[in-house]
TrEMBL record:
The keyword Membrane does not apply. It comes from Paenibacillus abyssi. GO terms for molecular function: pyruvate dehydrogenase (acetyl-transferring) activity. Keywords: Oxidoreductase, Thiamine pyrophosphate. GO terms for biological process: pyruvate decarboxylation to acetyl-CoA. Its cofactor is thiamine diphosphate. It comes from the Bacteria. The keyword Oxidoreductase applies. This is Acetoin:2,6-dichlorophenolindophenol oxidoreductase subunit alpha.
Length: 315
């Protein structure tokens, strides 16, 4: 990344971090209901992937996908309003934390069901090939999703039809609260994609420049007709699986060892060495977050009479 792109990457990561820290506070204050799953620590993957995608490209993501959608440039005002269940939310307050969707920016949807976005992405990629449209679909999922049948069915179809789809596995070492090595027989999730003869690579998900470079190259290859690619991002979440998680399945020492490489800190250090005003960026992000919270709190609640708008009822 050149200096300007690295500044952009840091700004995106900082925005994701502060957005999610703010969600944590709002949840504690009962402004948000249900459950939330934060990606604090994993921001380099979101920023690197989002910045490497072209405007026409598509994305599917998971219930831990706030950052991925922010990186696709959906205004955080609308995302914050969605979190608070307001009519001005990106999905009019009806989707909430686990269902962010913004088709205008290629975000085909987050999904609360593990691995559900993977076949959706393969379907979108099939449409691109069938209709001869110039977009690549990126699907982001966790390491635990590689145990789902939908994962294997989707990879098989993508390989057979050589579809324009990029599989991005965020391996944060835990399938919710279970260490991934306890439930899979391989060392790397990329080995599973190799079984389908899909080019597969392991990436340092704590280095936004490495993520960006790997995704950019993969998308270029896919767009040129070379078929699907699988990237395994080695990353780590610095918070629990969900709000209230006691984290008894891992040690504090392990968490602290990953904090040393926090992608926000390491990227900030690089920029500071280039003479960039990090404090100025942080202050600007803080103003944006405060604006988003005010916008959300001042927005109207959905009208109950319109509850079923957009809902399909089968016969």
């Amino acid at each position: 990344m050149d200096k300007e792109r690295l500044i952009e990457a840091y700004t995106v990561m900082r925005t994701i971090r502060r957005f999610e820290e703010t969600l944590n506070d709002l949840y504690a204050e009962n402004f948000i209901r249900g459950s939330i799953h934060l990606s604090i620590g994993q921001e380099a993957v979101a920023a690197g992937v989002g910045l490497a995608m072209a405007p026409q490209d598509k994305l599917t993501t998971t219930y831990r996908g706030h950052g991925h959608v922010i990186a696709r440039k959906t205004p955080i005002r609308f995302l914050m309003a969605e979190m608070l269940g307001r009519e001005t939310g990106i999905n009019k307050g009806r989707g909430g934390s686990m269902h962010f969707t913004d088709v205008s920016r290629g975000v085909l949807g987050a999904n609360a069901i593990v691995a559900a976005g993977i076949p959706h992405a393969v379907g979108a990629a099939y449409s691109a090939k069938y209709l001869k449209e110039d977009f690549v679909t990126v699907t982001i999922f966790g390491d635990g999703a590689t145990n789902q049948g939908a994962f294997h069915e989707a990879l098989n179809l993508a390989a057979v039809y050589q579809l324009p789809v990029l599989f991005v596995c965020e391996n944060n070492l835990y399938s919710e609260m279970t260490p991934i090595e306890e439930i899979v027989p391989v060392d790397n999730m990329a080995e599973r994609a190799e079984a389908y003869r899909i080019p597969s690579f392991i990436v340092d998900g704590y280095d936004v420049e490495e993520v960006y470079g790997a995704v950019k190259k993969s998308i270029e290859d896919i767009r040129s007709g070379k078929g699907p690619v699988f990237l395994e991002m080695k990353t780590y979440r610095l918070v629990g699986h969900m709000y209230g998680d006691q984290e008894i399945y891992r040690s504090r020492e392990e968490v602290e060892s990953w904090k040393v490489r926090d992608p926000l800190s390491t990227t900030a250090d690089k920029l500071a060495a280039m003479g960039v005003d990090i404090n100025g960026i942080n202050a600007s992000v803080e103003r944006d977050i405060e604006d988003a919270v005010s916008f959300a709190k001042e927005s109207a609640w959905p009208d109950p009479s319109r509850l079923y708008e957009g809902v399909y009822f089968g016969e």
